[in-house]
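Protein modeling request. Please complete all fields; requests missing the sequence field cannot be processed.
Requester role: graduate student
Desired output: 3D structure, token encoding
Chains: 1
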Amino acid sequence: MATDLERPDDADRAWRHSAAEEFDLAEPLVRQCIAAADPTDHSLLWHLHGWLASVLNSLSRRHEANLALRESLRHARAIGPDAHEIDVARYLLANQELLFGDPADSVA
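Delivered output (108 residues):
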């Protein structure tokens, strides 16, 4: 399977669309990067799912963004029990719940 590094055109185009706030155009490209990624490359997938969540939030698709952040956390945990990505993913998910969900869930 190709990673986003082997398909820089998708990632580069997605970043350009994100920077231009063309989130509807960035979303399918980020999803293509996820689909092309090695399923065991948890560091890459942690990053890509977090990016997808950001794009989805920008499209006001909060529930889907929440699911993407949960997937990001799952990959962060798969990196290893001491991975700093776990703390970042937990923070982002808690912030998502605080801003757009149930604040009680942000503590959980």
